[in-house]
Structures are given as structure tokens and as C-alpha cells.
Amino acid sequence: MTPRFLLTVFGMIAALALAGCSSSQDGGSGSTTQIFTAEYGSVKDAGYSIPAVPISRVDKRYHRQIVNYSTREKPGTIIVDTPKRYLYFVLPGRKAVRYGIGVGKAGFAWEGNAYIAWKQEWPKWTPPREMVQRKPELARYAEDGMKPGLRNPLGARALYLFNEDGEDTLFRLHGTPEWNSIGTAASSGCIRLMNQDIIDLYDRVRPGRNAKVVVKQ
């Protein structure tokens, strides 16, 4: 075997080894520099066993990935592109982590600027009064809320959005066990991510006034 042939073989092996975090082209937001398709296996977290996502059944554009992304917003800012069903966490160097999201149904969408006032692992969920009026079967959770767990609508993590006046917007960035809702308009206004993705985002966010969130319609 010639040295050139061996280098070619080793290069192919290295490329296969990186298949779970590989380079590819993105359909409309610039080139993808890394894609984390291999990161959706089962996860043990705080005593819970989060099921694996059948990620091959989720459109690849909604897999977590690092993309080239130009914005005037500072690193650490979260930008929600509602029409495209993307959430960006801005990184230095004109890059961002991009996540696929599920968004609010028509009539339940929200837009504007906010900030992450606080965040919670395995949050309790209390339905808003308006939701209870629409769905009386949720009344049993109106007082004490639904306990954390795999079936909780907020999933493994929640980030709480407050407006610039310091008031709770009642909108959340949160996890969901309903992986098949990613890329759709299915929620009651909040922004949902796969549980594996909200855990990743949660670890990147430091709550406070500097944790800016921009939601675009």
C-alpha cells in the first residue's frame, strides 16, 4: 500500500467516526459547522430516564447544530425565528447553536423582547387561567400544579420569560416529550424543544437582564 492510499483510508475512517457531529450544508441559514444528531439517546437525569428520540424521524434541519449566523445581538442572546421553527443561541464569531422548536398555534403566538428571569430543572406546571377555561379537565392542576415528571408539559427544563418591565410574560422556553411536535405550531403559545435540547440550552443560559430573548413572528 502506498502512503497516499493509507492517508485516504484513514481520512475516510475519521469522517465516519465524526458522523454524529459532522459538517453539512444548511438549507437557508448558511453552512452548518457541526450537527449533533447522535445526542438524542436516552438520558438519566435527576432520577428520571428520558427516552431516546427516534431522531431519524425528525427532519434533519431541526437537529441541534452549530451554524454560521450573523446578527447584531450579543453572544448569549436567544433569538426565536417563529416562522422557520428555529431557536438560535448566539455564540461569538458569527455563529449560533440552532435548535428545532415547536411554536404556538394561530392566536396563541407571542413576539417581542424579553429576558430569562429564572430557570428551573424538572419544573412543576400550573396551567394559566385562560387554558383552564378552554380545557376544564385541567382544573385539578390549577391550584397546586402538575408534579414534575416525564409527562409534564414543561419537560425536563423551563426558562421563564419576563418583559422589560420585570413582569412575567407567562411564556416559557421548555422541554417536551412530544418530539413529533417539533417543527409545528402545536403549543399554547410557549416555545418547546426536545428534552435533550432544552437540557443543552439550559446549561448555556445565565438568567438575568443580560439573558435577552428576541421572539420574531
Describe the structure.
This protein has 217 residues and is an alpha+beta fold. The protein has one domain (20-216): Beta Barrel (L,D-transpeptidase catalytic domain-like), CATH 2.40.440.10. The protein has 3 helices and 15 strands. An 11-stranded mixed beta sheet has the order 1-2-5-8-7-6-15-10-11-12-14, with helices on one face. A two-stranded antiparallel sheet has the order 3-4. It is globular, with a radius of gyration of 19 Å. The termini are far apart. Mean pLDDT is 84; it is low at 1-28.
What key attributes describe this structure?
15 strands, alpha+beta, disordered N terminus, L,D-transpeptidase catalytic domain-like, 34% strand, 11-stranded mixed β-sheet, globular, 217 residues, two-stranded antiparallel ribbon, single chain
